[in-house]
Amino acid sequence: MLSNRMSRRMALSGALGGMAALSLAPAAKAQDLTKASIALLKLSSSGPIFIAQEKGWFKEAGLELTMKDFQAAAQVPLAVVSGDADLGVTAFTAGFFNLAAKGGLKVVAAQSAEKPGYQLNVIAVTNAAWDAGVRGVKDLSGKRVAVTTVGSSVHYSLEIVARKHGVDMKTVTIVPLQTIPNMVAAFKGGQVDAAVFPITTFRQVESEGSGKPIAYVSDEVPWQLGAVFTSPKTIADRRPLVEKFLIGYRRGAAAYHEAFGKRENGKLVPGPNYDEMIGILSNVVKQPPALIAAGLPYIDPEGRLDVGDIYKQVAFWQSTGQVSRDADPKSFIDLSFVQGHFNVPR
After folding, report:
1. How far apart (Å, rounded) are the C-alpha atoms in residues 129 and 268?
2. For 268-292, how does the pLDDT look when each residue is reduced to its tens digit (9 = 90+)?
3. End-to-end alpha-carbon separation of the chain, Å?
4. Domains of the chain
5. How far apart are CA 315 and CA 275, in angstroms?
6. Does residue 196 contact residue 253 with C-beta atoms inside 8 Å?
7. Which of 147, 169, 269, 292 is the most buried (most CB within 10 A)?
8. Which residues contact 180 (CB under 8 A, 6 or more apart)?
9. Regarding predicted confidence, which is higher, 287 or 124?
10. Which DSSP category does 191 fall into?
11. Residue 23, pLDDT score
12. 294, containing H or E segment
C-alpha cells in the first residue's frame, strides 16, 4: 500500500514537474531572443517589417523587435544616431546624408524605390493652374510648388523631374509647408499652383475635384527612395542583431513582392496571399485596403540597393549646397549584409 502511494506521489510530482517545465519553455525561449528596436513611419513603404512582425519571422530569426513610430522622415535617422533606436527605415533626405557623412549612420539594405508602374508620388496642379495652361512639368516655370521640407525626398522628386524637362529651378518658388495636411490646405486654397503629393493623398484630393496630375515620379525618373540603416557602433558591437533583423526583413520583402509586385498595363495584379498581406498593412497603417493598394511602392524582394543612385543623390544635394562636399557614400553604405546590390560604382 505504502509503495503504491509513493508511486502515485512520484508520478504526480513528475507530471507537475513536467508541466512546470513546459510552462517555463516559452519564457526560456523568449529569454533567448535578441531585443532590438526600429524607428519608422507607419507607411506602406515599411510593409515588409509589418508583415514579418505579424508572421513571427523576426522571432524565428531570434529577434524580439519593437517598432518605434515617428511622424516625420527626418526624425527616424536622428533616433538611430541618438541611440533611441537600433535600426531605422525611411526615405533618403539631405539631412540623412549629412548625418551619415559625419559617421552616424550605415545603410545596409533597400526599402522602397520609385520604379515605372508603381505610382508612389505625383506632381499635381490646381484647377486654376490647369485652366491657366499648366499642363505639364515644363510649364512649372514661374510657379509656386508645395513640398514638405527643403531637402526632403519630396523636394528631390520635384527637382529631378523638373530638371529632366528642362525647367530652370531658379524660376520655381519652392514652398515648404512641413506636413501633408498643410500642403493639401494650401493646394485647395490656391496659395500654391502645384504640389508633390503621395499618390494616396492625391487620389483623395482628385476625388474632390481639386486638382489634376501632370507627372508620376516613378514613370519620369526611377530612383532609390529609401533604405534600412543602423549605426556604425551597432554593426561593430552587435552585428548579429543586424543579421537577424535582415533575415526577417527579407522574408517580409519577399512576401510583399509576391503579393504586390506584379503589374500589367500599370495596374496591380494581386499575387499569392494578397488579401492577407494587404490586411496586415491596413491594420498597421490604419487605412482601407483599397487606398493602400493605390500607392504600394516597389520594394526589392531581397533588399538590394541601387547603389549608384545613392551616389547620384548625394552629388545632387552637394551641388545645391544641402550636403557637405566631403560626404562620400562609400563610407556609409555597407554592402556586406545583402548580396547582389545593383549599379555598384567601381
Report:
1. 31
2. 999 999 999 999 999 999 989 998 9
3. 85
4. 33-113+223-332 (3.40.190.10), 121-220 (3.40.190.10)
5. 41
6. no
7. 147
8. 148, 197, 198, 201
9. 124
10. S
11. 41
12. none
Return the sign of the alpha-carbon dihedral for residues 58, 61, 64, 66.
negative
What does the pLDDT look like over 162-213, one tens digit per residue? Answer: 999 999 999 999 999 998 899 999 999 999 999 999 888 898 899 899 999 9
Cell digits for 331? 563610407
Could you tell me the three cell numbers for 116?
Answer: 515605372
Output the average pLDDT for the chain: 91
What is the separation of C-alpha 76 from the centre of its chain, rounded to a whole number of angstroms?
A: 11
C-alpha span between 66 and 58 (Å, rounded): 10
- The mean pLDDT value for 323-329 works out to 96
> Beta strand 34-40 with 87-91: parallel, antiparallel or unpaired?
parallel
Amino acid identity of 330? Answer: K
Q: Residue 263 pairs with which residues in a beta bridge?
A: 268
User: Quick one: how far is CA 226 from the chain centroid?
Assistant: 6
pLDDT for residue 71 is more than 90? no
Whether pLDDT at 36 is above 60: yes
In the predicted structure, residue 266 carries a pLDDT above the cut 90: no
Mean pLDDT computed over 26-37 = 74
* Residue environment code for 241-260, b if the CB has 16+ CB neighbours within 10 A, otherwise e: bbbbbbbbbbbbbbbbbebb
CA distance 268 to 295: 10
DSSP category for residue 226: E
Residue 199 grid coordinates: 499618390
Instruction: Report DSSP letters for 81-150, one per residue.
Output: HHTS-SEEEEE--HHHHHHHHTT--EEEEE-EEEBTTB--EEEEEEHHHHHTT--SGGGGTT-EEEESST
How many residues are there in the chain? 346
